[in-house]
Amino acid sequence: xxxxxxxxxxIVMITGAVxxxxxxxxxYARNRNNDLPECLPFxxxxxxxxxxxxxxxxxxxxxxxxxxxxxxxxxxxxxGSEVDFFLTSRDVVHxxxxxxxxxxxxAIYGNINKATVKFEKAGIYKITCHEYCGVGHQNMQAExxxxxxxxx
Length: 152
Ligand code: CUA
Fold this sequence. Notes:
By secondary structure, the protein is α+β, with helices and mostly antiparallel strands. The protein contains 1 helix and 11 strands, in the order H-E-E-E-E-E-E-E-E-E-E-E.
């Protein structure tokens, strides 16, 4: 008859507990609304920069980065809007950071990144390129202007 060393038994139990915690964390996080960007299949339609208004408080922004600008450079939405940002690049890799919004995406040619942002507070939210992309990198900016009342 084999016996298990008490020390070994303790190690097995601790390992089991840590593993259970790890699996529980993954299952728990899976069902949370986390703000990770999604990666979508590439389609050339995304290279046409535009702002689409789906309804009063729902917008889609097709954002295109290229040396050294973002298009559209100015995005205006009413307060409380939910905006889907679809992002791609026409040339090199650029960054896409929206201040105060925990959005940090990469703009890559042949690739579409998507993040959804809700703008609960009126104000000006700066979009900056945070990936060095050449001599004009520091000038690469855009703005989201969130207006207090809906536009007519
Ligand atoms: Cu684009 Cu730095």
